[in-house]
Amino acid sequence: MFSCCYVASLLLGAFLLYCRRKIYDEYNDEVVELKKKETKLISRLLEGKAPDADFDPYAPYVDWFKWDGSKHPLSNAPEPKRRFTRSQSEDKMVVRYCRAIRKGLIKFDEPKEEPSVYLLWGDESNSNEKSGHLAYIPAPKPKLPGHEESYNPSKEYIPTQEEINAYQLMFEEDRPKFIPKRVEFEAGTLKLGQGNLRRGGTEAKPSKVAFNRSNQTLGACCNS
Question: pLDDT tier at 123 (50, 70, 90 boundaries)?
């Protein structure tokens, strides 16, 4: 025979299960007992599933429209006028902006008037406004020295005596600025420390060359 505690526990469990299926209907003012089908439907809704158990959410798509031989879109109606006109809310916003501009609440940046003339030879170092013209023109770079200006150039770069005499008949601006020369070393003298730049001699006009170099350095410092 079952004990009284065991029977009481079974009755209590059955009573609780019976109470779970009862809800209070406020509209009809009565207690309704839910059926098993209805409880399953509620549990499926709570789990985020479809109410019907036979519903397939991943069923293949069925295209009900027949596309064979279709030449025109589904809707060939003309564009409505409301797509080209402002709505009421947009009209109110435009009026609000116009009133704010008239009252001075909204201000726009005025375009700066650029001067049509500028100081060609004047000093603009103190002026805050930068002009649109080119402020710095670099000096022309001299030609880099080639093989003919070497202290011991090859024979093909050395002019003959006839060519040197022909230079004297030319105008001064057409004459070459530099005539290359070759330092001839005696046979057997090319020893350590002898066949070097000290044998080549100095420039023809060293003072003039130094003066021109100093002018070029001074001009570069002024331009920078």
Answer: low
